[in-house]
Specification:
It is a single chain. This protein has 706 residues and is of the alpha+beta class. It is built from 15 helices and 35 strands. The protein has four domains: 185 residues, D-amino Acid Aminotransferase, Chain A, domain 1; 118 residues, Nucleic acid-binding proteins (OB fold (Dihydrolipoamide Acetyltransferase, E2P), Beta Barrel); 144 residues, DNA primase, PRIM domain, CATH 3.90.920.10; 173 residues, DNA primase, PRIM domain (Alpha-Beta Complex), CATH 3.90.920.10. Helix 9 packs antiparallel against helix 10, helix 10 crosses helix 11 and helix 12 packs across helix 13. The longest helix is centred in the middle third of the chain and has 20 residues. The termini are far apart.
């Protein structure tokens, strides 16, 4: 009977609230099938490893319980370390899992006692109960444990039919997560079932080690471990971490990996590392906590928690992807496991995600990061159709981080070649301590969205070689000497002056511009192949010296009403400074003068209807100081404003971010959108710029709209 395997839960992202579900804590321990028959006891992990010797107090408690109940049983549960009367974190159990020395085992029994928390029953006496419902099995288990000992070694898991209440309790007590179970479901031996859903409150899961890098400076044994998981039989690279180790755990990990070293990479695609790599057989499983998955499928800020000898390496998958895939497959089904379709759901990992985001943010405005994800919550769009670009971008960002951590310079390997970068550790934003490397990494990660927006457009640089508080200067002309990867072409401006200019559209050119000290990416409104035609018209809302941002919001709403009257549509975006940009997509062959005329039409309409708050007066001294200048004169060949997703040279590294019109409300604050949270926002709400630019405005009948 000891060759059976436990029922497994499917990773989930939401807790269902429909009828027929019950909820249990997800404990942070070792999953165990407990076999008890009077004097004979076995504690088998999911991987079939016998843990009876390591946890003698649990084995003794099971023997005693079988005698008291006067029958054998097989139960499912979790061995946990105890901190007083409460289950502790997995790290507290780590030191006991692999001990074989009897004296050390007895010492652990005294110093760090464990408990077995039982949550299911497979055999009751000689009767198999796996075909019975959860409710029936739960009653049997409760009856079985009714006369258990009072030392607390055997415990019955908590259970509730109120998912929201248990979720609040989980957050308060910092549990690993929750398990949702169908109350009418049988126990599916050895199967992963959607009748059980596991939802983790913090992002953590197991990964398999595929190698390590050599240490730097005074660090001993290992620099970082290289992590992976299995997908359709392939071993996929997920990132690396050197964080979370003690000196002892570094030595232990080195001992484990040195014995399984191999000559070739085990990963399906060999990862690039900043230090020499040693490859291993993918057999050591570790538990990792992390902030998020990047759009390129790489872990962000992973931290080592411990080794998991109780897990089969081949069963380690990307749990987030599995959960999303399972949810997608289940949508529209009519079976009992999907009868909550359309009902309210509880987002179990929402608050932790916000907290993690706040922890990674720099000090300035970190607490406001939730605002940056307001538009269309939950519709994570990523970069549709551009997964390779996203993976390339994340690899580049990782290279930049490693270079900044090392000596602040190096040679980037890009999809198109190599690019030298330097001074990555130079502080560009003294108030928040963001570096040149931070700016470059932001642009690298945003490149799948930004590069299409600036492709083929001349770029104007305002260079800040010593950061935002240093001296700055504009540069229209491309440097006389530039790396061969950088795109440079002769372009004529409004005055027909032709000079070589940097042309946007590829990652090398984008990063080169930042390497020169540019912070904002300011593109022309037209592309080189149609330089006389504008792709969009811009209305720049520029507040006067006494105008508040609330006044800017008022005027933006007035612009929206005017657009509606004319039958036009536009994408609003923060300027990244004190104003807003309203951008109207245009069809082909609209000359720059035509773009200016359309913007002027709307601006004039707004100024005439709302003269107390809006003006089109060009002379600064003649404008009411509390009014907003509705500027339509940016629509001239060669003129620029901060481009979409551009970092701004402000005290904090704000970003010019596209918005939904519904976000332009009294709570809007342009400082909510920074290099610390805009990439996450775009992954959640989608690329609002690309979406808004797809449909050009029809200009028919515009002049008759007033």
């Amino acid at each position: 009977m000891t060759d059976i395997s436990p029922m497994l839960a499917t990773p989930g992202t939401e807790l269902p609230r429909g009828e027929g579900w019950v909820f249990e804590p997800k404990y942070d321990g070792i999953r165990i099938l407990a076999f008890a028959d009077h004097d004979h006891v076995a504690l088998l992990s999911r991987n079939g490893l016998d843990k009876t010797r390591q946890f003698p107090e649990v084995a003794d408690a099971l023997r005693a319980q079988s005698r008291r109940a006067m029958r054998p049983f097989v139960a499912d549960g979790e061995i946990v370390a105890m901190d007083g009367e409460s289950p502790a974190r997995f790290q507290a159990l780590q030191s006991r899992m692999h001990v074989m020395d009897q004296r050390a085992i007895e010492q652990h029994r005294e110093d760090s006692p464990a408990a077995l928390i039982l949550f299911d029953l497979l055999m009751d006496g000689m009767t198999s109960v796996v075909g019975e419902s959860w409710r029936s099995r739960r009653k049997r288990l409760t009856d079985l444990l009714a006369a258990r000992g009072d030392d607390g070694t055997l415990r019955l898991t908590d259970v509730s039919e109120d998912g929201e209440a248990m979720l609040r309790e989980a957050r308060r007590r910092e549990w690993e997560g929750l398990i949702a179970k169908r109350a009418d479901a049988p126990y599916e031996v050895g199967r992963r079932s959607r009748a059980w859903l596991k939802v983790k409150l913090e992002r953590r899961q197991e990964f398999v080690v595929g190698g390590w890098t050599e240490p730097r400076n005074s660090r001993a044994h290992i620099g970082a471990i290289l992590l992976g998981y299995y997908s359709d039989g392939a071993f996929v690279y997920a990132g690396h971490t050197g964080t979370g180790f003690s000196n002892a755990s570094l030595a232990d990990m080195y001992r484990r990996l040195r014995g399984i070293e191999r000559a070739t990479s085990p990963f399906a695609t060999r990862p690039k590392t900043n230090q020499p790599a040693h490859w291993t057989e993918p057999s050591v499983v570790v538990e990792i906590k992390f902030n998020e998955w990047t759009s390129a499928g790489i872990l962000r800020q992973p931290v080592f928690l411990g080794v998991r000898d109780d897990k089969n390496p081949r069963e380690v998958v990307n749990e987030t992807a599995v959960a999303a895939e399972a949810k997608s497959r289940s949508s529209g089904r009519s079976s009992h496991e999907d009868d909550t379709t359309g009902e309210a759901r509880v987002r179990a990992n929402g608050s932790r995600r916000v907290a993690a985001s706040a922890k990674t943010a720099k000090p300035a405005k970190a607490a406001k990061s939730t605002k940056a994800t307001k538009a269309q919550p939950g519709k994570a769009k990523g970069a549709p159709g551009r997964p390779r670009a996203a993976r390339d971008a994340e690899r580049v960002a990782q290279q930049l981080q490693e270079m900044e951590d090392d000596n602040g310079e190096g040679t980037l390997t890009l999809p198109t070649g190599t690019l030298d970068v330097s001074n990555l550790d130079k502080i560009f934003f003294p108030k928040t301590k963001h570096t040149k490397g931070d700016v470059m990494r932001f642009y690298a990660r945003m490149s799948p969205y930004l590069l299409p927006a600036i492709a083929g457009r001349p770029l104007v640089m305002k260079r800040f070689p010593n950061g935002v508080t240093g001296k700055a200067f504009y540069q229209q002309k491309a440097p006389d000497v530039a790396p061969p990867l950088v795109r440079i072409e002769p372009v004529s401006d409004e005055g027909l002056t032709t000079q070589n200019r940097i042309i946007g559209g590829d990652l090398a050119t984008l990063l080169y511009v930042v390497q020169l000290g540019a912070i904002s990416i300011d593109p022309w409104h037209s592309r080189t192949e149609s330089i006389q035609f504008a792709d969009y018209a811009i209305i720049d809302l520029d507040p006067g010296p006494r105008a508040t941002f609330e006044r800017v919001i008022e005027v933006a709403r007035a612009v929206k009403l005017s657009l509606d009257r004319f039958g036009l549509h536009a994408v609003p975006k923060t300027s990244g400074a004190s104003g807003l940009h309203i951008v109207l997509p245009l069809g082909p062959h609209v000359p720059n003068d035509g773009a200016r005329m359309i913007a002027e039409l709307v601006a004039t309409d707004v100024a005439e209807r709302y003269p107390k708050i809006a003006t089109i007066e060009r002379a600064v001294k003649a404008r009411p100081p509390a009014s907003v200048y509705v500027d339509f004169l940016q629509n001239i060949r060669g003129k620029t404003v901060a481009g979409v997703y551009s970092v701004r040279a402000q005290p904090t590294p704000t970003v010019s971010t596209p918005l939904e019109w519904s976000e332009i409300d009294d709570d809007l604050d342009p400082e909510d959108f920074t290099i610390d949270n805009v990439a996450e926002r775009v992954r959640k709400v989608g690329d609002l710029w690309a979406k808004g630019m797809k449909k050009p405005n029809s200009l028919k009948g515009v002049t008759g709209g007033r």
